[in-house]
Amino acid sequence: MDVPCVQVEREDGEATRQALADEDLVNQEHKIVHDDGWLYIPVTDPAAVPVSHEVVDHAVPERKTQTMPDDLVDFVASYERLGEVVLIDEDDDARARALADAIVESDIPMKSVLNRASKIQGETRIRDWDVLAGADTEAVHREYGCAFALDLAAVYFSPRLATERHRVVEQVQSEERIFDMFAGVGPFVIPCAKQGAEVVGTDINATAINYLHENAERNSVAERVTATHDDVRVIATDYEGWADRLVMNLPHSADEFLDTAKRLASEECMLHYYDIQHEDAPFEPGIQRIREIMEPEYAVDIETKHVVRSYAPHEDNVVLDVRLLRD
Question: What is the pTM of this model?
């Protein structure tokens, strides 16, 4: 039977499915199908699908009944997937154990179940995990046609930022010079390089940089990627005035690195500045700090003010897209 579906190229399928699932838009009563090089993802509400996705009517079969975690516990099962690693966030040990057992018994493809055991901590931005099933904290995550190998016990990675990363990458032009100041395993670096840009990524986490090298090879962009393990304030000496685009995804302390961003920026540079602030004034502190550092050497044009997600009660994770033009 014909039902509304998002039509995407097959290589973008998993990232698109995850993004739709995050908004509770995937129609679980029908199967996802491949047809003539396209993937068709049934959706519950075509009007709610972002305009960047094409919605068409397509024949997809009804899904046979699958056992899901919700069928096996007496509470709402909340989890997210990173490849075949399933992540949960339960403070109660008994509830965590029950949910992990339900995930294992369900029809969800999985190799490990991990429960968050700490907040993000330290300058390498990693967290502790309790391994409740399986033994592997390494995953291969796919989003928007890119594959990222990573070890959750050793690096920072958030699949919830996939849509935001894609928003930035869509702005990238071939031959741009891009510097990711806190690159991690490469979720900005790799897709920017796939757009034809020359990209430098640095991080103080040596394991993350090792994965960045691996992911550049995995995605066939190694010739356009330079990955360096060091403090960006040290590396900046070699790239003064180089960057056409800067990514500053270190929201708790990016303001401390704006002097370095100024050194890296070319005559005209787009800055993507991430911040976490109180919901009453989420943008103003970042704008004020950027102007303090960049002016008068640069004219500062705030092109975009965007709430990426709610971070904590009354706190928002936000981004400022800022065009810098040297006066």
Answer: 0.79
